[in-house]
Queue: 2 jobs
Job 1
Amino acid sequence: MSCPNVHSGLIVGEQPSETLALMKALRPRTELPLIIKLTPNVANPHEVALAAEEGGADAISLINTLKALAIDPVHRRTWLGAGAGGLSGPAVRPVALAQVRAVSRAVEIPVVGMGGIDDGESALDFILAGARVVAVGTENFRDPRAGIAVQNGLEGALERRGFASLADAQASTLS
């Protein structure tokens, strides 16, 4: 519901009414969990998340990529296949953290945090911002074992920041 590379993904992901309408069409079609991935390209992501929750989403995942552009310096033209695309990785982490915090405060369903997680410390930041769990995306392109490295690093991050367990960190989200 949030792909920046197709027009319909932007419409659904940016307008709560479109999100709700899609959820009302999807929810009756499956009993499988529906995890809705939101775009960061909106002013009030919590409003879209609330619409997804109202429509029966089981969880919210965020963020997808930020709208971005890259220019080929030699040919002086955009070089992404569709002319533009999405920015991901550590550069989007501050935006992702802010949106995870805003959405997790607005909805009752779990939030999956993602957006630049590349080690245990960044994963813990998402937990403290209100994510129930985290997902590793772009870092997997650099290191296919990134998820394992993040998981292993999370144990050390918890200890360094004084948490006895992941549950303790989840219970102490930022105020």
Job 2
Amino acid sequence: MKKLFTLSAIAGLALSVVAISQPKKQTANTLKVSAQESTIKWTAKKVTGEHWGNVKFSDGTVTVDGKNLTGGTFNMDMTSIDCQDLQGEYNGKLVGHLKSDDFFAVEKFKTATLKIKSLTAIAGAKAGDKTHNVTADLTIKGMTHPVSFPAQIIVSKTGVIANADFDVDRTLYDIKYGSGKFFEGLGDKAINDNFNIKVRVIAK
């Protein structure tokens, strides 16, 4: 009986040690994107110069597992698109054109969406550097295409801050106005097929 008791005690102790040695499994958390603090800046270039402006986030979420960002979905309010480098009548004309069917057709497609598909840490990234390579699906005008770009992602106890910038080929989303790829003889009225997006996301 004493021997049986001893064996039981040893087995119990072993199980306790194994349980203690097992790392605690992190629980994934979902954080909301702060639409007020997050920003999107667009820049489009043409032969004679460039224009830039902003688009607002409508909402979004990110998922965090421990200290790692594991996913995210970000919705952009295309009706909020503006231009910051023009004033008065010219500003109104450009913004109206951007909202028309020639460009983003915002009456039909009020929301654009970026959904993260995968993230890979960049080895040797230093403070202030981009920390991850991101692959995502970008949906504009109801059409979805993959985009890949490096991003700086900081996960802390208070939330997530992410910064990224990348180019988008507008012609993939049936935005062909002023594109030399589809129209000849545009001269100085030609508009670059790629436009740039700079994004800062704050989620809490």
